[in-house]
Amino acid sequence: MNRILLVAASMLLAAPSALAAQSLEGNWTNPKRSVIVKVDRCGEGYCGTVSWASQHNRDKVAGEGRQLVGTRILTDLKPAGDGQFKGQAFEPKRNIRGSATVHQLGANTMVVKGCAVLGLFCREQRWTRVVD
Hints:
Elements: H1 2-23, E1 26-29, E2 35-42, E3 45-53, H2 55-62, E4 72-81, E5 84-91, E6 96-106, E7 109-116, E8 121-129
Antiparallel strand pairs: 1-2, 1-8, 2-3, 3-4, 4-5, 5-6, 6-7, 7-8
């Protein structure tokens, strides 16, 4: 009986970290709901690619000679402890690359922070999971 309890307890302790890692995967939208980003495994980490964007946002980026849908905006997100993932971010409207920090506040809310120019300019957004 003690062995069963020990195994059950160890599974419960291991479950949150596995769940947290898997929960990044899915479709997420920005606060204005003008972009949907699909986060999925890529290599050793996670990546986020724009899967849908409003016509307004597509036009802004098209004016710069680029395409928004299909653009990878989060790259190489890897666990950094305390439920955070760190990697690289790309802001397509301004054509800026920088560091990214991502952590979840719950199953359906994720905070995405991108910083550029040696961390001097940062922007943070709360993204919401898109439920199909």
